[in-house]
Amino acid sequence: MFTIANKPFHSRLLTGTGKFSRPNVMQDAIAASGSELVTLALKRVQMGETPDPTLQLLSSLPVTLLPNTAGAKTAEEAVYAAQLAQAALGTNWLKLEIHPDQRYLLPDPIETLKAAEKLVKLGFIVLPYCGADPVLCKRLEEAGCAAVMPLAAPIGSNRGLITREFIHIIVEQASVPVIVDAGIGCPSDATAAMEMGVDAVLVNTAIATARDPVVMAQAFKQAVITGRMAYEAGLATSSFTPPLQASASSPLTDFLGKTA
User: Fold this and answer.
1) Helix H or strand E encompassing 54
2) Alpha carbon distance 205, 184 (integer Å)
């Protein structure tokens, strides 16, 4: 169990809701994942007079909805979007996303910090999607963010933990939950992230675009549990550092029991 803003969550796997072929597939995948915190794009909230079937379905599930501001290009746009979500959904939880670059969808660190500072003052529980920048993550934490969400790799790329070394530093320095977001492409990526000591991972594309999203959601659920168990158990020190040398797991004796 881990907590964000004093709210406990049993599952350390967060899931997104984009790219699923059908709403019922998304529903079954969320159930299989065990996720209790689910993101959704604000465009679903702003469908106007036409009810969005995905939003309707999500509202009926026993999960905490985490609207995101994907599509915002500035702090001002993100704050406006957050206020729309709060009015429409009645929640002050928010995944803050600001990425003006549409090719790589990389988060804007300056606008993200500006928006986070304002949204925290307005009473939002802010979980910012950000680069794997230890200095920025610390600044976001100091601004009052409830968690930080550094990327593993560009959104939807399935490239895995490209930012591994920086995430190590972020985890070491953080006093709020660290949730690795974006780029997690397979269950082993999730396990590796959890073994590093992150508090949770967020997965969308790798589940939604799998041949069988429900089974893949189950695989990610188990991967996160396994990674966390390994972290808490304490990983053995790697011997693959120079000079490379084997380390016997049994006493060094000859066949007849004499010490070698």
Assistant:
1) helix 53-59
2) 8
Under DSSP, is residue 202 helix (H, G, I), strand (E, B) or coil? strand
Burial of 202 (0-12, 13-18, 19+ CB in 10 A): buried
Q: What angle do CA 93, 95, 99 make, to 5 degrees?
A: 155
Q: How do residues 184-241 score in pLDDT, each as one tens digit?
A: 999 999 999 999 999 999 999 999 999 999 999 999 999 999 999 999 999 887 765 5
Q: Which of 152, 160, 150, 156 shows the shortest CA–CA distance to 204?
A: 156
221 domain-assigned: yes
For residue 217, which amino acid is it?
A
**Given 7, 19, 43, 95, which residue is catalytic?**
95
Q: Which residues are documented as binding site for 1-deoxy-D-xylulose 5-phosphate? A: 156, 182-183, 204-205
For the entire predicted model, the pTM comes to 0.88
Token code pair at residue 259: 């010490």
Residues 6+ apart with CB under 8 A from 186: 158, 160, 206
What's the structural domain count of the chain?
1
Q: Is residue 240 part of a domain?
A: no
95 included as an active-site residue: yes
Q: Please indicate, yes or no, if residue 242 is contained in any of the structural domains.
A: no
Domain of 147 in residue numbering reads as: 2-233
In a domain, 172, yes or no: yes
